[in-house]
Design a protein that fits this description.
This protein is of the alpha/beta class. The chain is 22% helix and 20% strand. The strands form 10 sheets. It has a 5-stranded parallel sheet with strand order 6-3-2-19-30.
């Protein structure tokens, strides 16, 4: 799908009075706002589902310890509402042609399968989505082919409380549609409680007193008849999946705060697996729940609808569950296939991950679309390509952190209680996976001794990162400082090579940290060893006197350096911008914001490592230069 957007002038004789800003982090937002407030049309393109960048992930900022989100959220809102800013999220620049004043940019807006204009951001779709794991669903059959179900060869029984358990409030009310009944008797054969009476060529009848609501009759009724109805599910006319979720949420509220962990035989797990996910790996039997181990697709839907947390994926299959990791929280917790990028996201609109969404991959499920009250879910969305007429470009795609796994001696990725600095930021954040509680990822224990190791991926020839990342000394000091504010019993230690606190009041900030019992040791840690029983970590280093030392910590934070993302390098190539050996944009000393291609300007850490205040200052300067 193609469209065309013109800037203010619409003339080929005069420069186009519009600017393309690439990147929706703090740098891109500041440039966009300065330009928009000056009356200049801005097209802001961001690759992620929401603007905010790295600053939105931080807990506090140095050296004032101000709340990061409190600073950035007014800018998020203003960018989202400004009449002179057209926001392209979940999008990327495909190409740029023309000359300064008369550029044409091609922007691809990827399908998010949610209508931004219609969505209210209520988050219901994320709540009701039953999928919690990376599933193994087979691909959709080719056009004209019929999808066939696999039959279970390996079965196991998940022991339940036994039969019967006819608790009225826990069950569905099943009935037979007399006009639809095929009189096959399948429901009677499947019923475990003798609740269904049937004779040849007669319509089956369900005794409501004997029925336990397990759903065996519902699953046994052939799809061509669909004669078994759920009488107390008003949402059934929209979707069975919607009815299942409505029932599940009702029962979860009923059992909230109770110690009920036994199966209540509500049958939601079996109905979900069979009718909603179209797999049929679960079946209610006399002993409990029969699981087709080999045909389970490990989506986690059965466990997610269980109102008493009786069922787990490990009970159903021998396949290893793989949770969908939340990228905004740096993989410290899981997410659903449909999710809002982060709580304060702009736009506050979810995006569907097409790789993990069951509906997009198999045609089954569709619960989110059925329950969306404004009809904002569109599974048929496709990416859109738009051409934009602009006069200049500001390139500020942001940065990423160094892959700490490249420094194998520190055990990142192997030892669960070794985290990166950005992961620790999410642990500190009130909107993070632990709601601001400092805990170890390995066992959720509250750590007492925490170590920070500096210059991981900075000033290091071995990994081709021999530049200083500029911010690591200060953010480590800040994190140690804030950790003690969260928990006064924490004993923070920072292992550093040189303390590069060169900004305004930065030295005073380090002094304040020392006064707040943050310990600084000038040494480079050579190795980390984990105690396999406790998960504690032994750090080995040489102190200032040349003596070998070893000290045990509960948690280790690696102060990782910053680098240019590979996608930003590729985009720079498309824009014909020169980069240095590290991937940072090359500029002239006397024109620090101008790139090698006239009409394209740069701001932010993609030009070189810098902190937030310097980035904001540079972004405003780029906004001043771009329309000239």
């Amino acid at each position: 799908m193609k469209g065309n957007l013109d800037g203010f002038s619409g003339s080929t004789e005069h420069p186009t009075a519009a600017v393309l800003v690439i990147g929706g982090g703090i740098s891109g937002m500041q440039s966009a706002l300065d330009l928009a407030n000056a009356g200049i049309k801005v097209y802001l393109v961001e690759s992620s589902p929401a603007i905010g960048g790295k600053m939105a992930q931080l807990d506090k900022t140095f050296p004032t310890n101000d709340c990061s989100m409190c600073i950035v959220s007014p800018k998020l809102v203003e960018v989202g509402r400004h009449r002179n800013i057209d926001l392209f999220t979940h999008s990327e620049v495909k190409g740029l042609t023309g000359e300064p004043g008369h550029f044409t940019a091609t922007v691809v807006r990827h399908a998010r399968y949610v209508d931004i204009k219609a969505c209210t951001g209520c988050g219901l779709c994320e709540i009701v989505c039953p999928v919690t794991q990376i599933s193994h669903f087979p691909a959709l059959p080719a056009e004209g082919e019929k999808k066939t179900r696999a039959r279970a060869k390996e079965k196991s029984i998940i022991k339940g409380p036994g039969l019967p358990r006819p608790v009225k409030s826990h069950k569905w009310t099943f009935s037979v549609e007399t006009t639809a009944c095929g009189m096959c008797g399948g429901c009677q054969k499947a019923c475990l409680h003798g609740a269904v009476s049937w004779e040849k060529k007669q319509v089956a009848v369900i005794d409501q007193e004997k029925c336990t609501g397990c759903g065996a009759c519902f699953l046994a009724c052939p799809d061509k008849f669909k004669a078994i109805a759920i009488a107390d599910a008003p949402d059934l006319d929209r979707s069975l999946g919607a009815a299942v979720q409505a029932r599940s949420q009702l029962l979860k509220k009923e059992f909230a705060g109770t110690e009920q962990k036994d199966c209540i035989r509500c049958g939601l797990c079996a109905v979900t697996c069979d009718k909603v996910m179209n797999i049929g790996a679960l079946k209610m039997v006399e002993e409990g729940i029969e699981a087709g181990v080999d045909i389970c697709q490990v989506c986690g839907a059965c466990a997610s609808v269980c109102p008493v947390n009786f069922l787990s994926i490990d009970q159903v299959t021998n396949k290893t569950p793989r949770p969908l990791l939340n990228s905004f929280n740096e993989g410290l917790n899981s997410r659903k296939p449909i999710n809002i990028h982060y709580p304060q996201a702009v736009p506050r609109v979810p995006v569907i991950d097409e790789k993990s969404c069951v509906r997009l991959n198999t045609g089954a499920c569709g619960i989110c679309g059925s329950l969306c009250g404004v009809g904002a879910i569109h599974y048929d969305h496709r990416e859109e390509e738009t051409e934009i007429a602009i006069g200049s470009v500001i390139f500020s795609p942001g940065i990423e952190v160094f892959d700490a796994g490249r420094r194998g001696e520190f055990g990142y990725g192997l030892y669960k209680n070794v985290v990166t600095s950005i992961e620790f930021e999410r642990l500190l954040s009130a909107s993070g996976p632990t709601s601001g509680t400092v805990s170890r990822p390995g066992d959720s224990k509250h750590p007492k001794k925490i170590a920070w190791i500096q210059c991981v991926g900075s000033r290091d020839h071995s990994c081709d990162r021999d530049y200083c990342s500029s911010v690591c000394c200060m953010y480590a000091t800040k994190e140690a400082f804030i950790a003690r504010e969260h928990d006064a019993s924490i004993e923070p230690t920072i292992f550093y090579i040189d303390m590069r606190s060169f900004g305004k009041n930065f030295d005073n900030y380090v002094t304040r940290a020392k006064d707040h019992k943050v310990r600084f040791i000038r040494a480079m840690v050579s190795r980390i060893f984990e105690d396999p029983v406790t998960g504690d970590l032994e750090l080995r280093y040489v102190d200032g006197s040349g003596e070998r030392q070893a000290e045990t910590f509960d948690l280790v934070v690696l102060s990782v350096g910053i680098q240019v993302p590979q996608k930003a390098k590729e985009l720079a190539g498309k824009l014909e911008i020169d980069l240095d050996r590290y991937g940072f944009v090359v500029t002239d000393s006397y024109q620090p914001l101008a790139t090698s291609r006239p009409g394209i300007f740069v701001s932010g850490a993609v030009k070189g490592p810098k902190d937030i205040p310097e980035t904001v200052c540079e972004a405003s300067a780029a906004a001043e230069a771009a329309p000239a």
